[in-house]
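Quick one, probably user error.
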């Protein structure tokens, strides 16, 4: 439930903000996406993870500092992503979702970016996210109501910016 809303928010931010980390991840994505169709399949991910050498080639065109910064963790992040895809039953991921799941959340979950995504998500009310807005993002009213229950701290039936921000800054483990 709530993960879907957070993922939608991160995806929106990741594709509307530019920074070095996002450019670097785009490069990695392009290297793994062997058939250049804009989606990574489990097979492509597996091939990249199995062959350590081609994977190092994935990183070579990146500026040294970024490569150095990512190198130790990126394989671990890719393995984690691979597990998440398997668990969710999905067998591919597009570049927007890839960036949203691989990026360091702290670098993009800033006040300005959260305001931008909050403004983009609220369709029906100038100041609040309503159930209908959330339903559109997470695929149905049932999920939207579950999210509303968890995020709407003052129980007024809508989500204000402070509540949205708190949800985005909460670690995923607390969201069960």
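Nope, works fine. Designed sequence:
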């Amino acid at each position: 439930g709530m993960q879907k809303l957070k993922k939608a928010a991160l995806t929106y931010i990741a594709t509307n903000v530019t920074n070095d980390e996002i450019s670097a991840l785009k490069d990695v994505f392009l290297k793994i996406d062997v058939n250049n169709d804009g989606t990574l399949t489990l097979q492509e991910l597996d091939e990249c993870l199995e062959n350590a050498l081609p994977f190092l080639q994935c990183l070579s065109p990146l500026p040294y500092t970024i490569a150095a910064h990512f190198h130790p963790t990126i394989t671990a992040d890719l393995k984690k992503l691979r597990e998440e895809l398997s668990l969710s039953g999905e067998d591919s991921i597009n570049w927007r979702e890839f960036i949203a799941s691989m990026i360091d959340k702290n670098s993009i979950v800033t006040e300005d970016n959260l305001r931008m995504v909050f403004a983009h998500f609220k369709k029906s009310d100038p100041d609040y996210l309503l159930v209908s807005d959330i339903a559109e993002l997470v695929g149905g009213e049932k999920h939207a109501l579950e999210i509303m229950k968890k995020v709407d701290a003052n129980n007024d039936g809508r989500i204000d910016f402070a509540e949205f921000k708190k949800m985005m800054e909460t670690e995923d483990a607390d969201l069960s």
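The chain has a mean pLDDT of 80.
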